[in-house]
Amino acid sequence: MTEYFNIKKVQYEGPNSKNDFAFKFYNPDQILLGKKMKEHLPFAMAWWHNLCNGGKDIFGDETADKSFGAETKTMEHAKAKADAGFEMMEKLGIEYFCFHDLDLVAEADDIKETNRRLDEISDYILEKMKTTGIKCLWGTANMFNNSRYMNGAGSTTSADVFCFAAAQVKKALDLTVKLGGKGYVFWGGREGYETLLNTDMKFELDNIANLMSMAVEYGRKIGFKGDFYIEPKPKEPMKHQYDYDAATAIGFLKQYGLDKDFKLNVEANHATLAGHTFQHDLRVSAMNGMLGSIDANQGDNLLGWDTDQFPSNVYDTTLCMYEVLKAGGITGGLNFDAKTRRPSYTREDMLHAFILGMDSFALGLLNAAKIVEDGRIDDFVKERYSSFESGIGAEIVGKKTKLEDLAAYAEKLGEPALPESGRQEKLEAILNTVMFG
Ligand code: XUL
Ligand code: CO
Question: Taking the complete model, does pTM exceed 0.70, yes or no?
Fold first, then answer.
């Protein structure tokens, strides 16, 4: 079989290694807080960025050759992509992958032929999964590229397009179950609007929820036991996307009674586009018991779009893993929804990118475990609210008070003392000491 990546399996060599094709921090079998590093960090490869995307942007053509030696849009190409993907995952020690239906095969003019191609490629992938032990993290349907989806899928203005979307979701669920996927993602690619002059927002939201409810009903019927995920994003491609951020998506799920079957797939770059930190959207999801999976990437502070970069910012990976540890882990995984920069167009660049991302998350995990063990930050937060642990505070928390009781208490007390200092700078210094000390 053709070898696409001309290296041996990438090994852990430690921080002093100068080998570009070795991990400096990711040591899969190292035990931390009672679990192997690779169990804390269930990394996944995104089929689309690695095996499909050649770096095309609105100003220019592809720079990277993703033909993998086959004629594009053929089944040979689909299989060559799978071969290259599995070889790369094996060499990197990545145990999961994520896919859109149309990452796997070229779409045909007739949906029946597209589905036949999907059956053929999923048989092929299943064989490779059996021989390598690599697993499927989640599947999804691409309902945003084709021009029929100009107004979205669930949010479309056309009942026929809505049915086509339903057909794609049905098939993508079949594939996810066939490949044993842990989750099924709805990223609202074009589920949003440009102007309310032509949009019935309430109608579109009702329809999106309806599509999701039918997906849950069908998925459970065919034996899908995993989680459905919404992946929030505030904008791009639409000016205003409905699943703006974690809080909005959770509100939507609760409103339509979908919260028992759905969790969130939180993407770093989407959270920052929404004007939040990555940590914020992770916390919002976790505190609602809905932190399911993570799209591990990063954006660029100076750019207002989804740059989907491999993570290198160790503060962010640290605070991400801190949230994950505090949540008791995730049932999903860490999917590198990330691509190399357009001028980094070689296969070596793909490997460097994964090594960077995996090492950044390993550092994040090591730091997060130290923050938890150090305990000063958690203790500070607990202490900060300690006035609610006894006396009138405990009565408030215990819901034993009425507004009149509190007013009488306040009048008797007079002007309260200022709350204790928030000590942000001290805590930031502790974070630095824990990370670099
Ligand atoms: C787009 C994005 C998608 C989803 C899956 O911004 O993140 O790739 O992860 O559709
Ligand atoms: Co994503």
Answer: yes
